[in-house]
Amino acid sequence: MNANDYIRKITDGVEVDELAELIEDGKMELRLAELDTHWTEVMRLAERYGFIMQSFGGVSTLATNAEYLKANGPKELARRLRMNNVNL
Description:
Blueprint: E1 8-11, E2 14-17, H1 18-24, H2 29-36, H3 39-48, E3 52-56, E4 59-62, H4 65-72, H5 74-83
Antiparallel strand pairs: 1-2, 3-4
Helix pairs in contact: 4-5
């Protein structure tokens, strides 16, 4: 089931969120753990292509190289590409 398939509505001023309730009750724990197994794969790809701006403790900030260049200029992009050891 897609996350958007779970009901989320307000009835008589009370919010009902089926997905949040399942998460709170621990009924999604195995599925969330399974999804998290892909983190290493995602981070390897992000590192390979130079998208990592910063990363610590399972939280990362990513940016495309084009956006990073626009925001920071060519010298900073070159520094980041070197830091991530990107194969050009």
